Amino acid sequence: MARLHEGEGMAARRVVVRFLHSRGAVRAPLLATAAIALLAGVYAGFGRLGWDIPHASALAELHGPLLLCGLFGTLVSLERAVAIGRGWAYAAPALSGVGTLVLLAGAPVPAAAGVYALAAAVLVGGSLVITMLQPALFTGTLLFGALAWLAGNLLWAMGSPIVDVVGWWLTFLILTIAAERLELSRLRAPKRGSEALFLFALGMLLAGAQNGITTRNGSTLFGIALLVMMGWLLRHDIAWANLRRTGQARFMAICMVAGYAWLGAAGLALMGFPPGASPFSYDIALHAILTGFVFSMVFGHALIILPAIVRLRVRYAAILYAPLFLLHGAVALRVAAGLAEWGAGRAASGALTGLALASFALALVLSSRRLRFATIDGVRSSR
Amino acid sequence: MVDLGLVYRATRDESGIDVELTLTARSCPLGEMLMDDARERLVARFPDVSRIGLDLVWHPQWKPDLITDRGRNLLGLKPKEAA
């Protein structure tokens, strides 16, 4: 909370009222639900890996939905709402947060799924507004990403098992990230074929999700899409140039590029080692995409998004490479353990992932020299 | 922001300062922070000015053409050819 410059009661009341009405008062609870979803989702993951912990069996099924909808759905919706700047857009992250609470309260799955579907519908609305205001391939891609989230949630609400809908949830995240990279690629000299290649990847991704990534057909199409998308990123993304820079820019670029490698690896896994081929092939592909690609992008973006959304002034420091290394090490271990059908290695990779996430949060706190909360409407705290 | 061509207007007269900024994308969640930071910088730079008007505008739509020569240099783009 902001500390006061004057010590008077009236001034104190003014600051508190302004804070409560400020954007922070709306966003903090939304982020809190995302944090709850992250913690519960990771805990559920430990349960799935066979750890003997309380409530493991009850939560195990919720690992995917908690992380994909509760964490990422809420975060993406919140970012979109901040971009749109209108009150109604915040219904998306709010509903997503409610969905998480409903899910954790033990309500029947269709109830929670229905709430997440409502959240996705609002996100679709917001994405449509943005696309109408700025018609472009990248805004259209964001819209299709939101539609993919909606499709997955609706199917899940209507009783489809998670393995049949997860392709849509993956599409939501992959398209949301790819759209941002496409938008940024405008800052570089345009190369021929960018839009065509991007559209091809997008189309194959949707086809694969539609057919289901646990089918031979769907996993092949999805795998091809991931390889084509990685090809687009290799050729057109701006991260490559930033590898030559220093400090934060270089750190972010390394996060991106390492993520792109896992995207390609997941594509190869889906094609050559499709879900069903072995007990672990589904696990390998999913975690290469979600831990190797998506979480690496999260690590790379945290330094920019946290200040933008909640004015948390986090700073880059070289120590951040340690959790990044742990993260990618964990994915490598998980993939290797899956290929070798080595259960203990897989369980250890889960622990390593949890450690990577926790140490990243800790490293951010430590590296921010004087962690300063600025109330968003301009009242600065004294240090 | 200047180098990307995002400053559409920056004028000063007796009544005060007027600045108009845009963003490269409507989907960008950084806009709010950029506006707040811009306001803070302007207030710090011009403490004696009674009125500072800062607006986020969307017309004309930003295009990469608007990147300044210095911006092109920093991004490693070729300089714009003279008309």
UniProtKB/TrEMBL annotation, chain A:
Transmembrane segments annotated in the record for this chain: 28-46, 58-76, 88-107, 113-133, 140-159, 165-184, 196-213, 219-239, 251-272, 284-306, 318-340, 346-366
Keywords from the named record: Membrane, Transmembrane, Transmembrane helix
Source superkingdom: Bacteria
Entry protein name: NnrS family protein
UniProtKB/TrEMBL annotation, chain B:
Top-level taxonomic group: Bacteria
Coiled coil: none
Entry-linked InterPro entries: Fe-S_Maturation_MIP18 (IPR052339), FSCA_dom_sf (IPR034904)
Protein name (database record): MIP18 family-like domain-containing protein
